[in-house]
Amino acid sequence: QLQLVESGGGLVQTGGSLRLSCAASGFTFGYYAIGWFRQAPGKEREGVSCISSSGGRTNYADSVKGRFTSSRDNLRNTVYLQMNSLKPEDTAVYSCAAYRSPTRNSDSCPPFTAFGSWGRGTQVTVSS
Length: 128
What we know:
Number of strands: 10
Number of helices: 0
Low-confidence stretches: none
Structural class: mainly beta
């Protein structure tokens, strides 16, 4: 059974950094692109980043470009989201989700709407 577990959230001051982890189990990790999403109170969930199943391609929302970096370790079945220069508007619950690519080690990222199989999320709070 596909399972994603996020960790690494916490409270940080404006300008600080956090690294989130998304640990995957129950499926062949090399077939799946992984997306990071966030949802702030009273707002809709938004896509933050995608990393292809090969790790060779990443996409980012405009709001986080240049500050967030996604990477993956296919030996550890884990995807990371390094978040730097954090702002109060980054405060949200961050979740990861999976998308099965047509081939293993694909270099493509699907639209954010294509992702499913969500983790439960980890809270990130940025104080001003």
